[in-house]
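Structure first, sequence second, as always.
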């Protein structure tokens, strides 16, 4: 009999972390590696936010706080939701956790029973299905395709919902595809959800401020106020504010759900880092003028990467609306053999051969639920991105 729990045997380690770890190992061995696996901005946390963290240390704000966030941060989050999304929440409706992942897990753990279903569009962030499994639920994957720019249609959502559906997880702009839903596209989905009052909405808005061109971000409870009482709107400071390591995520939602999430958190990690909380107050209430220039920088990188990848034989790369990922299809590469002698039967074969033969680390599409494809994070320097795309082109040229 295994000592490990049956629940743990249902889940797997994060593929994105595995790719990043393998790339670091090869780099330590002296290989010339360009890692495009991690979803992490490549610039520093802005100075005024860092200074707020230092000030928290120097003024002794280093003790326990309320388990799901200090009042000052909850007020800052409430102001942010009102300012950016037109959503009204008070302190009792806001939860702060150690990163967005903890917020999502707390919500699922607090609400799911054995057999409860959670609809997740694919491609999906790798953690969604495994968090559902850890919480005792059953992920129901709703497939999208490159033909619809990896966006879920109303008919697909309707087909995925059953009487056992408890949650619909929504992420726009998306990790891994960067796909962003327009207000009209999202309204079609919310119209479906209005017909199914047992389904709650878990909206992951982590990439809200990384929206490009004419695309305008919107969130479900904003588009359809009738869903306000059964929507958990989640976000964090990790991506837009370059605070991945500070580990602050947050959510706004019904007070009863927030109370249940607080109970879960109080018996697991308790409060997020006090220093990080004070830095997050500054992030949300201080100057916001760096957000738009940063988004334009990522947009320029997107344009360069999309153009370069679409020039590669066998690759078709949609143009995403936001985030800092592209998700090119490699359907025309399957069945071929690399210059190094590897037969490409799956997108994992493609990613493994690409790393071994060229030193470019990407994450294979099967990790995100949709194949054959791979994810590139363009949160890297322009020089690294250009060189990586050149190597990918050479690799594709060598397939035969």
């Amino acid at each position: 009999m295994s000592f490990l729990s049956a629940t743990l045997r249902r889940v797997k380690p994060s593929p994105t972390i595995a790719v990043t770890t393998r790339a670091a190992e090869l780099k330590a061995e002296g290989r010339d590696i360009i890692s495009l696996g991690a979803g992490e901005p490549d610039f520093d946390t802005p100075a005024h936010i860092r200074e707020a963290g230092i000030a928290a240390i120097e003024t002794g704000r280093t003790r326990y706080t309320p388990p799901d966030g200090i009042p000052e941060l909850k007020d800052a989050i409430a102001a942010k939701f009102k300012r950016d999304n037109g959503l009204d929440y008070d302190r009792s409706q806001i939860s702060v956790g150690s990163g967005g992942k903890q917020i999502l897990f707390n919500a699922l753990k607090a609400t799911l029973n054995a057999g409860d279903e959670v609809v997740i569009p694919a491609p999906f962030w790798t953690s969604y299905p495994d968090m559902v499994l850890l919480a005792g639920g059953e992920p129901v994957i709703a497939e999208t395709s490159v033909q619809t720019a990896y966006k879920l249609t109303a008919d697909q959502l309707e087909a995925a919902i059953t009487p056992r559906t408890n949650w619909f997880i929504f992420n726009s702009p998306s990790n891994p595809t960067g796909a962003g839903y327009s207000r009209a596209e999202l309204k079609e989905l919310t119209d479906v959800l209005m017909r199914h009052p047992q389904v709650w909405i878990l909206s992951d808005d982590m990439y809200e401020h990384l929206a490009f061109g004419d695309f305008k971000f919107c969130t479900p409870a904003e588009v359809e106020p009738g869903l306000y009482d059964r929507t958990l709107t989640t976000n964090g400071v990790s991506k837009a504010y370059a605070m991945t390591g500070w580990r602050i995520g947050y959510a706004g939602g019904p007070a009863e759900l927030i109370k249940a999430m607080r109970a879960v958190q109080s018996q697991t990690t308790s409060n997020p880092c006090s220093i990080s909380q004070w830095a997050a107050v500054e992030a949300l209430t201080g100057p916001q003028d760096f957000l738009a220039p940063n988004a334009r920088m990522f947009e320029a990188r997107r344009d360069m990467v999309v153009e370069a990848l679409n020039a590669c034989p066998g690759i078709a790369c949609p143009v995403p609306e936001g985030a800092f990922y592209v998700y090119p299809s490699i359907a025309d590469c399957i069945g071929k053999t690399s210059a190094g002698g590897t037969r490409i039967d799956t997108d994992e074969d493609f990613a493994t051969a690409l790393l071994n033969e060229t030193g470019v680390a990407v994450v294979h599409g099967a990790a995100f639920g949709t194949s054959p494809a791979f994810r590139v994070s363009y949160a890297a320097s322009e020089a690294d991105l250009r060189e990586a795309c050149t190597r990918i082109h050479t690799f594709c040229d060598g397939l035969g």
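Margin note: The radius of gyration is 21 Å.
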